[in-house]
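Retro notes, item 3 of 5
We never archived the inputs for the zinc ion complex last cycle. Fixing that now. Sequence and ligand:
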Amino acid sequence: MPLEQLGYVGGRLDRADHIRMNPDQAAQALASPGARCLVLDGLDPVTQDSHLLMEPVATDASLDDHLLLGLDDEQRPVFVRLAQEVGSNFFPSPRSRAIVTEIPADEVALYGAARSLVHWHGRHPFCSVCGSRTSPEKAGWARRCGACNAEHFPRVDPVVIMLAEHEGRVLVGRQHSWPEGFYSALAGFVEPGETIEEAVMREIKEEAGVTVHSVRYVMSQPWPFPSSLMIACIGQADDDALKLDETEIQHAFWCDAAGVRAALAGKADAPFTAPPPMAVAHHLLKHWADAQVAPPRPSA
Ligand SMILES: [Zn+2]
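Structure as it came back at the time:
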């Protein structure tokens, strides 16, 4: 398992939308001899021999509390049971962080999708329109209100995470609650009525007082705590003057490529501690540093 792996990316299941849409096919999938159920401990992953633990689906299982995650490479259905009590913990536990280096990347992605969906179901037993009970349908990919018939879908919340770039340096910042020395890209939720580019420009202006333009998309990552989609971008800053929103950002500074490379390599004399490889911010910093002109080789 490579340590540089971005977490929760690279799922291999066929999501089998055609089965979700057909209640008879979904019931057949649940009852099929090869059907398996992903085991969770609350919202935490359970592993065995460096894989996620799967068990046969119980003979009395029902689509009322089982969600079809998809079909595996051998066309076997994979389900997860919808727990009744999921709590309100929106942050990754040590266990869910640790699996990124313990199990194959596609299984980390499978866990992320399952966790996000199970958590969404657990938090949405009631209709947001009329307050009545809702129940799962579409093999767990929606809920419907029994009173007003409103349909509710699992949510994905877009988050922009971005570097402002100015004359060979990028802006990194830290929140008050982070471990000492830890810095990352700035980030914030996309708001209704905004494009991704507009959200990047607004967030950097709000948090650091920096005006950016020419925003470009780099990569994305599902972050299932509880349902974010991290959208990593780079924008060009007009200048390097900072005016921090000190309620959100404790400190920020412009770092050159040598400093970013040292931080990503975990060097003791690096100017900051970088996010781990499971986080998209690590790969965004690497993407930027790799594109900078390499330092000259020392002469022989
Ligand atoms: Zn309703």
